[in-house]
Amino acid sequence: MDFKRSDFPEGFLWGAATSSYQIEGHSFGGAGPTHWDSFAATPGNVVRAEHGDLACDHYHRFEEDLDLIKAAGFDAYRFSTSWARVLPDGRGTANAEGLDFYDRLTDAMLERGLKPCATLYHWELPQPLADLGGWRNRDIAGWFGDFAEVIMGRIGDRMHSVAPINEPWCVAWLSHFMGHHAPGMRDIRAAARAMHHVLLAHGTAIERMRGLGMSNLGAVCNFEWADPADESDAAREAALDYDAIYNRFFLGGMFHKAYPERVLKGLEPHLPAGWQDDFDTIAAPVDWVGLNYYTRKLIGPTGGPWPGYEEVDGPLPKTQMGWEVYPDGLYNFLTRTAANYTSDLPLYMTENGMASPAPSDDQDRIAYLNAHVAKARAAMAEGVPLKGYFIWSLLDNYEWALGYEKRFGLVHVDFESLQRTPKASYEALKLALSQ
Length: 435
Ligand code: FCB
What we know:
Number of strands: 11
Bound molecules: beta-D-fucopyranose
Shape: globular
Radius of gyration: 20 Å
Low-confidence stretches: none
Number of helices: 15
Structural class: alpha/beta
């Protein structure tokens, strides 16, 4: 790598990130059905209709996986807790096996000196709650708060940090407006409600965890830089609308107690009654903000109904996901988040990484990480209080609608034998973190 641990301030956290449904193997340990299982079982939603039943079998192999994290020299592990594993019906009786699993996982991290950094929800909503309207139903805030209390009542005493929800934009917009993720809806009213309720659920969970006496609670959002596809005013407006929906809505709610005007223009008629009264909960104080960053989009106008934009193919080199490599976006979001929203609150890169096909010499992943870490350093040099960097991902895993083909891992997984093999990027990071 072009960087080493000693280039960063003392205490800067290096971590690896994963999520429950993407690695655990959802069929094990008494987990209940989720909306991802239904989504994946519907032809056309997921490549080859692949699902998370087995995934990386992390449920049985977590000791080996934590050994890999430790051996790379990481300080922290960002994992998520499956709501349906803990509460198979989403509410009510907890699954003792599920709670035991996260308890063992936590202790296994601590035994290795790894800091447990939990995310409560990384997208596998229990099906019984989806049947009640899921993120469209305001009651989800209370259901989620209850889940937060159950799981953190068990492991919260040993967490280094906790964030309620991974990537509100994906939970709400990608899944209810674009239809690309579960529950696969394409409906502006559903999207508006999900956008608001995901924030209400976030704030409710923060309040409940404070009630348990917990600290170091944060929020994790994803960001995509939006550039106009050409020089026209229409393209400029389109990119600003994309930016407002994707990058400004959630931080706006959490830090300004307001949604961007550009978003209200389309969503206000569809927001639930009384939405303006929820900002005290939504803006419950957090201790840090995590940024997930991968790419940028070129955006052009469609001339069609709001939001009236479309993604246009860009000219930059692309990853296996077809995502342009645009490290400047990481710098832009770190500086903008601190300047406009979070001031001196600690920031973390909670996800960054790339997919590349196997077999590969992994030089592209090394170059990607080098380029993005350099931008993080540039932002830090300007005073942005970045306190850590988590790589997505430890393992090749279930990449949602794209199945098992897109390989984000620092460690290769053979999905037949489930054998783990560190890639060149893993070895390079290991060296960098030892220096
Ligand atoms: C993020 C998700 C993560 C993974 C990466 C590639 O949006 O949080 O689960 O899919 O993208």
